[in-house]
Write a structure and sequence with these properties.
6 helices, 29% strand, 7-stranded mixed β-sheet, single chain, binds manganese (II) ion, 228 residues, 14 strands, binds nickel (II) ion, Metallo-beta-lactamase, Chain A, alpha/beta
Length: 228
């Protein structure tokens, strides 16, 4: 059973697994890096790490059009519920067996608010265990925190980590995060979307590969990584 991860730039992913399409933080229409638009994507589920516009993105429009169920923390899912969407609320540390795999919400060192200023609860990351047993850690917007090592203890196949700096970890802390998480493979995200978070991902990849055993995939927007 294989799982395909496609990056749309910033923190936006499509995960195709178990015959289902799962979008993560679908910031597409106003994302200058995204090769796809909100009107063109399929979705059975949408995962939202937090309420900031560059993560909530086009969730409401896509969910209305496709009927996708949106999974987020309790505060954000409650807000989306009021927009008339199908939702499933969870919270940090809690996991649930969805049709696409076991999804746990993880801590993220970041803030959150919904577009109308409503409280968004704490920003989250996601730890997905696919039906094939592979663990994929999508860190979301976060600074470095020591308990990343506890996430790493689960045995991570692929991690997606922000490297953009300013709002999240920068390259140096993201390298430290790789040491804590010890993933087999890592994808840098949340960089080069705007001038404020421009980074050289190739340089970061060289450092990670020189100093750890983790394999780095610097994806171009629209490119995929398949996990067998
Ligand atoms: Ni944010
Ligand atoms: Mn962000």
């Amino acid at each position: 059973m294989s799982t395909r991860l496609t990056w749309f730039g910033h923190a936006a992913f499509r995960i195709e697994t178990a015959g289902l399409t799962v979008l993560v933080d679908p910031f597409l229409d106003r994302n200058p890096l995204s090769p796809v638009k909100s009107g063109d994507v399929k979705a059975d589920f949408i995962l939202v790490t937090h309420g900031h516009g560059d993560h909530l993105g086009d969730t409401v429009a896509i969910a209305r059009r496709t009927g996708a169920k949106v999974i987020a923390n309790a505060e954000t899912s409650g807000w989306l519920d009021k927009q008339g969407l199908k939702t499933h609320g969870q919270h940090m540390g809690g996991g649930f067996n969805h049709p696409f795999g076991y999804l746990k919400l993880t801590f993220a060192l970041h803030g959150s608010a919904l577009p109308d200023g409503a409280y968004g609860g704490g920003a989250c990351g996601f730890l997905l265990t696919t039906l094939g047993g592979k663990k994929i850690y999508l860190a979301g917007d976060t600074g470095l925190f020591g308990d990343m090592s506890l996430i790493g203890d689960e045995g991570i196949e692929v991690a997606a980590l922000p490297i953009g700096d300013n709002y999240t970890m920068g390259p140096a802390d993201a390298l430290r995060a790789v040491r804590l998480i010890r993933p087999a493979q890592v994808i840098p995200i949340h960089y080069n979307t705007f001038p404020l978070i421009s980074q050289n991902a190739a340089d970061w990849a060289s450092q990670v590969q020189a100093q750890t055993t983790t394999r780095v995939h610097v994806l171009k927007p629209g490119e995929s990584l398949t996990v067998e």
